[in-house]
Amino acid sequence: MDWRSVKFDWNRARAFLVTAEEGSLSAAARSLGMTQPTLGRQVSALEVELGVALFERMGRGLELTPSGLELVEHVRAMGKAASRVSLTASGRSQSIEGTVCITATEVASAFVLPPIIARLRRAEPGIRVEVVASNSVRDLRRREADIALRSVRPSDPDLIARKLRDETACLYATENYLARIGDLRSPEDLSEAEFLGFEDNQIFLDGLNALGLNLTARNFPVLFGNKLVLWVMVNL
Known about the structure:
The chain is an alpha/beta fold. It folds into three domains: 7-89, Arc Repressor Mutant, subunit A; 98-148, D-Maltodextrin-Binding Protein, domain 2 (3-Layer(aba) Sandwich), CATH 3.40.190; 175-234, no CATH class. The chain contains nine helices and seven strands. The strands form three sheets. It has a three-stranded parallel β-sheet with strand order 4-3-5. Helix 1 (10-22) packs across helix 2, helix 1 (10-22) crosses helix 3 and helix 1 packs across helix 4. The chain is elongated.
């Protein structure tokens, strides 16, 4: 390895990495136990050393520039290697500990994850789990979460994806509503029915029509961003 080609200070690289993961200088300074001006000077010095701009200000927070996005994964690998060195030196290289952020839909967070996390905590008590219950697609490249459970295939080629299982979905309605709309003998009979939809409803609409229904946006007079609330509304 040509060590002469390494032209930056690891402490400055660490300041950059923590700032990228925390999203602001103030949060990164608290995480590292240093003052915000000191941290800001380290990040600025790294930008000078590398000759690139790593962040741009967005309101009160910071966003990675294209150069910052390209570099952060390399620096993150360095950080993981540094952590392994510290663990080995302290004799804890075989322990599993740290924080893992998992994002899943509200329904999965409420009904699927609890027993899984309970088993994980019993097996590995050193792991701290953060759950982000959200239907939005979190940006794993920006470390908004470490693991995302979603019903769609990710489009980012740099993410590692694994199919867990197939799921069966059903349509539900109250008996009173079914009595109002009359006898249903075929999918076409639902063309005048009202459905409760999702905030981003096009995928759901296209999926139903692929099953033989003939629906349009007018069949969805009420949309929800929260699936748990939608489930309560279906039963009214």
